[in-house]
């Protein structure tokens, strides 16, 4: 079982947190901090496994992580998962993100955490690995995005016109007033091949 | 209104969306908290709006804030609202938010049941998918119970995407609702062979997760998994299966034997490191489970160790780490194989990666020998000096101590060296392990008598340098060492060279800064030292004055301790102070006191091992479980008489624990006890049916020949897995105990001589190295015949404990279906318990074993005859059943013998199947069997195989005969019961069904509550499922619902129920399309082709399928003619059958329950677009809220507002027609005024409402 999936940056700012067991918001933040503390002090070129922090079950659980440019991807798993398998899974996850966001960078994760969640949901469900085939994951994600787009379009099914008007479903307006949010330097993730 | 819309849309444009929120937070780095709190206020405003898009946007932002640590549980209700949006976009946002912040104590979660059910059955696969994903995160016991059936249906969905999610979520459902495991398991097992690899992988995943916690229940799946392992190419699946086998092998050594070969092949062939690693791991587990020292396995061990060496030598740190990890597992059983790689492991100690160094340290434990211990420790000491982090340094410290102290200091040849290492370690600052060093010092000084002089000298130095230790204040854990130092110096003060100076050192003022418990030891031992000093000084008469000076020293210094805040210190100090004062008085009178003072501390303190008391063995002849006074009703002679005569060695252990007592208790008493127990079980929601083996029913007074003893004998060899493991364990334990005893003796003998001769006790071959001193722990500290330590118990709170359910037992009738949702949960819970009272259904077994037949073709013939026998037996039973029905006075066995009762034929059958599969590669797990193997010339001939199978074939008929009479009698009784129960159950089922559907459209219910209607009385049960058609084979119930997603679609859910005893398959559902309504067929199918129902029906099973119809006009009700064709398959023949039906699309079925706010409702009525109509119903006697509930439920309305006996209701058709009702009641007359923008539709709906009320 996967107990939690965390993504945070080099400063420990959470970019995605998914807990498959319930913790209070405070505990969740502490776990993120603790995990960041454990992971960030490790050199590059050391192994990617370590014992979980005290809050998330201690030695029963293992942290398996990968570090890409500015981001740490950490999976907290119990003994039923294969360590190398999870490492591969992280790789698949990141590659999928890269495909879905077209050259993913930290900013994509910052502004579209919901999309990241949706992609993750096609890979891991309730703490168990659902799909490891990248093409299958992308197919499903794309199909759902398509549905979302067709729902957003006012030209959708005329039969829904009434409800559409009632629900006031206007298309997403591009409102990038200050897209120049570039003061933060965010290098792209390295290519994986 | 239009203006409002425009205004709203402009508002929306200025709403912050998620991106704006994130940007805002980034732009307000300084006052982030303040900014977020204003954002939350905005979100609260947005949530108050009616517009679902605005709400969804707000919920989306909340999900983000939740990640940042803000509690958003206050918005739970809004999240539910967004979840129930008909749009996928919003639904997904809602479910995501719910999965992030809902948990078991979220109270609104109970509102979601019906919404989730609706989404699960949505024709859009992504609605279903999103609901499943969300549910997997927040499923509660209630949700699990209510939705288990729906999810189980989805496991056979046509789309693999849904199937795999449904399969995966079942694990969560099992965890929360263990009762669902048995009914769902057969289907889960089917999914292991699903054509879609994703579904297969999910099923493997779930079963592995289940089996990991309760492996023994899944042993029977081993052949299936074995097949998968040899056929699958999906590494992910392979890894899971191989891990699972790792958990199973300890239970069944023969399985391991069978696995070795394919695993070795995989190790040789695979290129995937992850797979290789897991294979190696499982091979290790197999080797551990097989008793060590099997000569033919040394090759496998060598292979593993070799591969691991490759991993460890790899430049990839991850592989290195895992290699070391796996190595440490081998170390436990095959230390020799690992020791040959010592160089590599020592090399890893220098690795720059701390995790790797730690793993290498673990391995060091097994690397040491008498020869290299000092060298290794020296190396570790170097590391201690270099280590930067305190955690790693502390780890090193504990490892050094572990390594040195393992098995009673077995490898230490020179204790002076060890003491100096310990003293060296005290130089470490800031370590947490001061007490560890201290206890080692004490341990060595006490146990190794010869070292005491040296130890005391070292400790005296430590005390003298105490300022070094205390210099770093109290938080320095290392000062604990002084505790040991002071005690050793005091207790063994006769070895001190200069006791006076040590005494002086112990009474320095600085000591008062030490922790209290250390000071107390200081004070006490100062007194001991004082005694020693006095004795030395009084020997020489010239030193009288010196002696008095010593007393004066104490009198001067002790008051410091008398003032201590620590009570212990204070008490001891004042006692000793008074004592010394008295001594001083005597000294002044020239009285010799040394002798008497020394007498205060005379005698040696011997250590006692912590578990010594526990390990005192029970003396022979003493039975702690025996009654001291005979209980009145029990007759001892009966007990004696029933004692198993020929009890085999295997059963000994069991009987010892369970103490079966068959007592002659009168029936009344028994009945009473049974009642009590039943009540207890009924009240315990987690009571899981005991396996049938524990449900033996004995008939009393019929004859002595049916004593259960006979069965115990037979069942022992049949029930292999446990028995062998137990036997093996027993044997090992005995061996260990024996060896220990011997060792102890040896050690004692040698110890006496060795003190002089400095002999060696180590069992290793390194006799040439002679240790300086001996450690004699066990002889002195432990009682004679100490037993090996007891094993730890399982955590009672483990949720997986509830899933420890026997899955091989055939399903009882009532179990085939999951209990459907009801109002009263305990009713549902009770039903499985009721069946637990011992219904063994033999026919099911046939089916089940038939499925497994694939794997054991060779076994077929044997089994067939068995089955026939069983059939006959069954008939026989039934015959008897009718005849002997009048005279049954069954006596149920008591709890005590339930445990000991042997498993009945049904389970043994399963077990023997597994045995047979396993016996192809028999494992001689004990010497006797090994001999047997060598006797059998070739294991492949059938005779030899069956000989090896633990069931001797010729003993079988006998067994059958033996068990038969009993079985017949017991099942006679059971049969009757079963029948009755069946009837009851059917009644119950019907009721449940009603309940189920009454709730299934609870949206109506809810809205009744929205309209402030309290449920004064429970509502009568209602169902939307109407009988569609029925014949002697099959029954079809159907429910027709509009599809909100698509205005031209109607979904027909049909429940097919198999009513006959045969298998129904190849069902085809076909409808004659009309101009207006068409069955949606898959692309490429002709307009007259039928749809294949995606499942088959075993006898008694029902399942639900959904069919989508497209409709054009919804104004008129419709009737469609259709036919269901199917094949009824009996054992010997199969017939084609068909069933005609008429589908009735009422106008009601085009309506969809849609909540409406009262202001919007008022606007709608004011708009004047709607045309009116009305209806009067006479003689309606039911309460008003029932009436409303009925309209809500049957006709998909929701209550907008209710004032007294008047209510307004609303519904919407799938094509967007508004239907408004005003319902009034007075004196049994109900008048309904209705308005709708489509008069035709309205008229038909009203007619249907009228019909509903005329029927009730």
Q: Can you tell me about this structure?
A:
The complex is a heterodimer of chains A (193) and B (1256). In chain A, the strands form two sheets. In chain A, strands 2-1-5-4-3 form a five-stranded antiparallel sheet, sandwiched between helices. A two-stranded antiparallel sheet of chain A has the order 6-7. In chain A, 40% of the residues lie in helices and 18% in strands. With 193 residues, chain A is α+β, with helices and mostly antiparallel strands. Chain A is globular and about 50 Å long. Chain A has one domain: Beta-Lactamase. Chain A is built from six helices and seven strands. The two termini of chain A are 28 Å apart. Chain B is of the alpha+beta class and 1256 residues long. Chain B is 56% helix and 9% strand. In chain B, the strands form four sheets. In chain B, strands 12, 13, 14, 15, 16 and 17 form a six-stranded antiparallel sheet that branches. In chain B, strands 3-4-5-9-7 form a five-stranded antiparallel sheet, with no helix packed on it. A four-stranded antiparallel sheet of chain B has the order 8-6-10-11, with no helix packed on it. The radius of gyration of chain B is 40 Å and the shape is elongated. The two termini of chain B are 42 Å apart. In chain B, 42% of the residues are buried. About 21% of the residues of chain B have low confidence. The chains are: A alpha+beta (193), B alpha+beta (1256). At the A-B interface, β2, α1, α2, α4 and β7 of A face α1, α2, α4, α6 and α8 of B.
